[in-house]
Design goal:
Elements lengths: L1 H20 L9 H7 L2 H15 E2 L2 E2 L6 H16 L2 H18 L1
Helix pairs in contact: 4-5
Pfam family, one: AzlD
Keywords: Membrane, Transmembrane, Transmembrane helix
Protein name: Branched-chain amino acid ABC transporter
Length: about 100
Amino acid sequence: MIWLIIGGMTLILFFNRYLFLEPRLPIRLNRRVKEFLGFAVPGMLTAICGPIIFVKDHRLDLSADNPYLLAGLCAIGLMIWSRNVLISVASSVGLFYLFRWWL
């Protein structure tokens, strides 16, 4: 049953992506839909990363010894400063491990 669910979700995901990526299909999105879909990725990343960064032991953790919070703030600062995703991600991962080891 689990494999059937995984296979079904794989097919749904594949055909969902295929409809928008295949240039020969006559599906075109208007400007409003494209603008609305532009908010999907930041919203999804916030929903995934928010609990990891801010919650520890089922409680809100905004303390200075939270390595996830410190690395997240460093990642934001590095992205604003460098405007380079690769440098920001690599540096913030390194800083996360440094904070985790140090704290």
